[in-house]
Design brief:
Number of strands: 9
Structural class: alpha/beta
CATH topology: Rossmann fold
Oligomer: single chain
């Protein structure tokens, strides 16, 4: 039986991926910051504590594996954040990078030696299509998702000689209730308030009508089980069409279309 670790497995995409892998016969170790408080545990998932913002927690989690041969790592845990670049608290940005990027990188580093010695392994980073199509007022979140994709893309040919595949799954808009948990940083008299509200309102509406976590999980499982792993998997938000448009159209056109779609296309005079 193969063993998979799924970070952030207590809800949303992580829970859906954990469920799908259990159904396919995997032993699944799912992580949560406090596994004892998981409100709707998935049958067959072994929940363990892991706080990716705490390096001691990461090392303790790996040490407690105690010889478990990990075949698959799904780096899914993360948080969402939004706000004008000018008003993002630096400590909040640092914490977001620790959770969304640095924690996942350190966990990957600690598991790679075993995969390398066994000459097999799959590492799937759950990113976001915003990394490929950045949106105003999401700069910190976009940067974390672009960074985690960058690690995977650059490391692919480092790891392939050892039988290890690493890739990224980029979901588009997903109906997981994430909009209600997104941390917002905007001042009460911010000069960005009107456009910020417009962009985030459109974003929230699109997420409410987005694809299900189950559909994203099917793409993650495909990435896990593909014999020839692709550098990138995208799902939702008309991914085939928009990625084709990005290849064919100038970047400035794509940026303009994105801005207008979110109600922030025109310049503000006198600002």
């Amino acid at each position: 039986m193969k063993t998979a670790i799924v970070t952030g497995a207590s809800s949303g995409i992580g829970q859906a991926v954990a469920t799908a892998l259990v159904d396919r016969g995997y032993r699944v170790i799912g992580t949560s910051r406090n596994s004892s408080t998981v409100s709707d545990p998935t049958r067959g998932v072994e929940y363990r504590d892991l706080d990716l913002t705490d390096r001691d927690s990461i090392r303790s989690f790996v040490d407690a594996l105690d010889g478990v041969e990990v075949d698959v790592l799904i780096n899914n845990a993360g948080e969402s954040q939004c706000g004008p670049l000018e008003e993002l608290p630096v400590d909040a940005v640092q914490r977001l990078f620790q959770l969304n990027v640095f924690g996942a990188v350190e966990l990957t580093q600690l598991l790679l030696p075993g995969m390398r010695q066994r000459r097999r392994g799959k590492i799937i980073n759950v990113g976001s299509m915003l990394a490929s199509f950045p949106l105003a007022y999401r700069s910190s979140y976009v940067a974390t998702k672009a960074a985690i994709k960058g690690f995977a893309t650059a490391a692919r040919y480092e790891l392939l000689p050892f039988g290890i595949d690493i890739t990224t799954v980029e979901p588009g808009s997903i109906a997981t209730g994430l909009s209600g948990r997104r941390t917002k940083y905007i001042g009460s008299r911010s000069p960005y308030e009107q456009r910020f509200s417009s962009a985030i309102s459109v974003l929230d509406a699109r997420e409410a009508q987005g694809i299900s976590a189950t559909k994203v999980a099917r793409t993650v499982v495909k990435a896990v089980e593909d014999k020839k792993t692709l550098p990138l998997y995208a799902v939702g938000s008309n991914a085939p069409v928009v990625f084709l448009a990005r290849r064919l159209m100038p970047r400035t056109v794509i940026e303009s279309v994105m801005a207008k779609a979110y109600g922030i296309g025109a310049r503000t005079r006198g600002a």
